Amino acid sequence: MSNILAVTGANGFVGRALCAEAVKRGMVVRGITRSPCILPPGVENMVVGNVDGDTQWALALAGCDVVVHLAARVHIMHDKSRDPLADFRHVNTFGTIRLAQCAVDAGVRRLVNVSSIGVNGSSTKGDSVFTDQDKPDPHNPYSVSKWEAEQALQRIQKMGQIEIVTVRPPLIYGPGVGGNFLRLLGAVYRGIPLPLWATKNSRDLLYVGNLVDFLIVCAYHPKASGNTFLVSDGTPVSTNVLLSGLARALDVQSRLFPVPPFLLYVVGVLTGYTAEFERLLSSLRVDSGKVCRELGWYPPFTLRDGLQATADWYRTERRK
Q: What CATH number is associated with residue 10?
């Protein structure tokens, strides 16, 4: 078998970064996408169409040693779907099961499944941290679909024909980031006053460069098989410290002013943006000690490194 690393969702935020880094390290990389696209130089593109319970993966997986599964229907704020759970299951649960079954048929040795910290829950309280030993508490349709996929993969692994590694990352940021993090980045850059100086929460984040490095370790480390890993930058921050760090990286003035968090929660409820305010004000800590103990892995980039790289990318994109 050829030593090919396959990456599903190769044209996404994390997928592109993973493909580029793997090629840089001399790996043979196959990027699997829903439709034809331009991937980083040196990456073969295989198209499979929609990801669901009927996807034809055979040709894309032929000759592959390891698959890193990133393709997913991602969490959407204010989802307009009539049945969000059914839509998430369609891709994230049934699509993942189908991929694993086809990987077994193709003789793939290992599947690294990128899940979500949402499987553990929405937030942590006080000094508590999420661990891989926690009783799962998926809190929305997206995380439910991810947890169901994890359970299915555990059953498939027990058949002994493929190794499964599960990774549950927290919020991922870095060059190419979108969503709420990009909106915060833009607000800081434009000098918009933000009422978040009084936040005293504590959240773990994950720089995409650290995640990519860790996924490559998970793809080949002999002790990774059968494990579920929680991973982060290792430097939890409050929202106000994060925003101040972004301002420093962007070389702009931080414009934060204090408003009691409970008032911000009220504003969130009244405006219909409860989930957005919850993410800004709540804590989410993860214990990533297991990856250090069992795999000897430590983040190669600091939080400050990650914020600076993200800020540099943002300023470059604005100049285009």
A: 3.40.50.720
Counted residue by residue, the chain has a size of 320
Percent of the chain with pLDDT over 90: 88
The amino acid at 102: C
Whether 142 is catalytic is yes
Counted domains in the chain: 1
Summarize pLDDT for 230-266 with one digit per residue, the tens.
Answer: 999 999 999 999 999 999 999 999 999 999 999 998 9
Q: Which of 142, 173, 207, 314 is catalytic?
A: 142
Indicate yes or no: pTM above 0.85: yes
14: part of which helix (H) or strand (E)? helix 13-24
> What contacts 212, CB < 8 A, 6 or more positions away?
14, 17, 18, 21
State how beta strands 64-69 and 43-47 pair: unpaired
Domain span at residue 162 reads: 4-177+204-234
